[in-house]
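INFO  loader      accepted 1 record
INFO  loader      residues=258
INFO  predictor   begin
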Amino acid sequence: MQHVFGLPRHNCRMNSLPTKSNFVDIAQHLTQGITSGRFPVGSLLPTEMELCNHYATSRHTVRAALHELQQLGLVSRKKNVGTRVESTCPTNEFRPSLASLEDLIQFGNTHVRKLQDVASEKIKGDLAGDLRCKTGSSRIRISSLRMDSANDRLPVGWTDVYIEQAYADIAEIVRHSPGVLISTLIETRHGRRIEQIEQEIRAVTIDEPMAQSLQVAVGATALKIIRWYSDAAGKIFEVSISLHPAERFSVSMLLKRS
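INFO  predictor   done
INFO  writer      dumping tokens
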């Protein structure tokens, strides 16, 4: 690209990505450019052809990446005008089709999250199956107790969130943002937008030391809820695993004929 926003290329150069980048990678890269202020609000992004040349990819891939930016509320697109930067803060407009347990915990006014631990972990055994990753893979684990503000003595549950090592900066931010979804932090800082959340609920028994943390007897029945967060390319970038003592929480939903 010779010029971007009327400035010489060297004044607003984008860091290069490997050739044949997929649209999710390009969307994340452009999002970082917007949120950092390199592409100011009100300015136009480079044209589709300029982006094709810069990223060494097809017009179809570039358009898919720009669609991701639109979905985040970062840009608007108009024929014969181009792609205009509208905001430096992504908006999370994702809504699950059915109300889920974690949504109630995260957004309900009666529950709070108490951070317990943040650590890097090598994944092995059954956990690798739950996370759908290879044994030996590394993940950042963020562990929290869920508390009911009306009864802050007994935890409602325990949640472990696993994210990629590339998002290690998120782990530190979580310490100071207990009320913000981790997936929202990833969207805001890295531009990786949630396209789908898959949820599975299992009946399990609680063992040590989890029984002690949840203040229940060893062998007590619990709900184990696993959620896989995927981007538009179908790649999982976050997994949450929650344990809830059966007598302290229930899941209900209303289904209507379509």
